[in-house]
Specification:
alpha+beta, three-stranded antiparallel β-sheet, 10 strands, about 20% helix, binds fe (ii) ion
């Protein structure tokens, strides 16, 4: 049985996100307002453990918490999910297609690295990927990536990291690219 705190926190969070989609179609405003709701949810102790139903230090993978069929960035439908990551778990630089994604850390810490296409002066047909920013998200920290932005993540703790994400559109429905930062080569996934 879920406690009142868990049920209420989840319901309030989902309702807050739905309200955002109901009132604006602008991706930056959507992401900013969803990030504010996530910040509030992350302050509530204990609600997520129960929602994801995992023992405190074991269990990895993803748990979908709410898939919305009515509201989504420019179409169906947003996904609230949780990713439980192994120590050192990382991924290739990637974008999220037309979607934005909000990342909040509940437990552990992840490094975020941002990449951009750079065209050297006069070389307008030979862009390369450049790492231009990195930062760490600790428990309670929230960050987001707007449509088209490229990033990769890494769990920098010795234990698991528990990351709450809102995908403006459920990402498996969105064509996205994954990049080799050495060669700039992209592949659809
Ligand atoms: Fe991502």
């Amino acid at each position: 049985m879920a406690t009142v705190a868990t049920t209420q926190t989840m319901a309030k969070f989902v309702e807050g996100i739905r309200d955002v989609f109901a009132s604006t179609g602008d991706p930056r405003e959507q992401a900013q307002r969803v990030a504010a709701h996530m910040q509030e949810a992350l302050k509530v102790p204990g609600w997520l453990e129960e929602a994801i139903n995992l023992p405190p230090a074991e269990g990895y993978g993803r748990v979908d918490l709410h898939q919305d069929e009515e509201y989504g960035h420019p179409g169906p439908g947003f996904l609230l999910m949780c990713s439980i990551q192994h120590p050192g778990q990382d991924n290739w630089p990637h974008d999220h297609g037309s979607s934005w994604v909000v990342y909040g850390v509940y437990e552990g810490a992840i490094e975020q690295v941002k990449w951009g296409w750079v065209y050297d002066q006069g070389k307008w047909t030979t862009p390369h990927l450049e790492r231009y920013q990195d930062y760490v998200e600790n428990p309670g920290d929230v960050a987001f990536f707007l449509p088209g932005e490229i990033h990769n993540t890494r769990n920098i703790t010795e234990g698991r990291s528990v990351v709450v994400r809102v995908e403006g559109q459920e990402l498996s429905r969105v064509p996205r690219h994954r990049y080799n930062p050495e060669t700039g080569e992209a592949s659809l996934y």
